[in-house]
Amino acid sequence: MAAFALTPPAQAHLDITGSDEKFPVRRIYCIGKNYLAHIHEMNADERDPPVIFMKPTDAIVKNGGEIPYPVFTNNFHYECELVVALKSGGYNIPVSEANSHIYGYAVGLDMTRRDHQPEVMAKGMPWEVTKGFDMSAPIGPITPASACGILTSGHVTLKVNGDVRQDADISLMIWKVDEIISKISEQHRLMPGDIILTGTPAGVGAVVSGDVLDCSVDGLEPMQVRIGGKAA
């Protein structure tokens, strides 16, 4: 067995509803600009190829957790999304076979430093500064597809302090889940343990310290997180 110079980080994982087992997370893929109304509110083009970016696995925040208000931003935004967890993968997965690779689903948040996004996008720079920072990926427990079926519709809803801010249906996604899996596999070898945040509907907005975010997708375990004080 290898001897490490430093203590290795713990394996990132997510809870599974109805089970004591954990879902090990290998990579976090994210899709940008995947709901028409959100594209309009961001002044972007329709039906472009999906924007694919990643977050680090140690950005995961569990249900009930607290997210410190991050450094290097004064405009911290929520984006509530359907999350897909994969049990298998590969390169160049046909759309017709994509759903067979799904282990289950969860609700998640793509937290965003919105004040840095316009410059990053205008200059064609990497998205990490605006998307891939610490604790930027709150994700709830995974519901296995064996329990909920293959999801093609269902409301995705986000409330801030009890007020509804996002309310749409995953059937309105421009790129459907099977298409997303196929598209990502054109560029990356998908593997067991990969998860995909599939894009957010309209209604994104800023949060401040003390706000409570309740996130849900019909048929899945809901998630709640709180925005804490400024990160040290």
Automatic annotation (TrEMBL):
Residue ranges of every copy of the Fumarylacetoacetase-like C-terminal domain listed in the record: 28-226
SUPFAM superfamilies on file: FAH
Keywords on record: Hydrolase, Metal-binding
The UniProt record lists the keyword Hydrolase: yes
Domain of life, per lineage: Bacteria
Entry-linked InterPro entries: Fumarylacetoacetase-like_C (IPR011234), Fumarylacetoacetase_C_sf (IPR036663)
GO molecular function: hydrolase activity
Pfam families: FAA_hydrolase
Cross-referenced PANTHER family: ACYLPYRUVASE, FLUTATHIONE S-TRANSFERASE
Protein name as annotated: Fumarylacetoacetate hydrolase family protein
Gene source species: Fuscovulum ytuae
